[in-house]
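=== RUN LOG ===
request id: a7f3
mode: sequence -> structure
chains: 1
length: 244
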Amino acid sequence: METERYARNILLPEVGDAGQKRLLAARVAVVGAGGIGSPALFYLAAAGVGQIGIIDGDTVELSNLQRQIIHRESSQGRPKVDSAKEALTALNSNCRVEKVSARLDTATIDAALAGYEVVLDASDNFQTRFLVADFCWANGVPLVSAAATGFQGQLLVVVPAAGNPCYRCFYPKPPPAAAVPSSSQVGILGALAGVMGSLQALETLKLLLGLDSDQPHRFLSYDALKGRFHVMHRKVRPTCTFCA
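=== RESULT ===
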């Protein structure tokens, strides 16, 4: 273990030597290497997470660079997973990075996410979000999901366990495609994606360290324009067709 490198982590009583060793042995998958996935990936690698999987089927475009800080101008046209792996390796050469350059579907998700102990959903569409959420709950894998558009961000942590609500307890089914405009339609301030990705990484590290958190029973929204966080309590929905 590189004690000097992780000294500021180890100084924390909640981390210490044992916690840092836990992070070094951890296996985390991030679905989406875009605006939210970029800071999440950077902070996971910087914290010393030993193995990180990146799943993304897109290539880097110029319009991505306003918020997707893991990529560079020279990365245009390259698969995002290649660009992201290069950046993470440059930051922490001891971090093992696995990549899947494909969009997830029912035929590929099992192989893509097998063996990971926490999954971060930083995708940009509801089809993928529900697919990942259902997989994680069915396989007992904690999920940290984040989304952002315009000036609005959302964070949801789902831990499969008795008494905890699943993703569908809060979102029973995907909304109609036209009901939720994408960032390509309404825009997004890049720094907002940075906030949500950082929160996503923080909640993931807390899960890996076994720290107590009530986030699995809460829904956090962030209004960046007003500078306000709003927390909503979540509970198991008795009529949930997925987990109840």
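=== NOTES ===
The chain has one domain: 7-233.
The CA atoms of residues 165 and 236 lie 4 Å apart.
=== END ===
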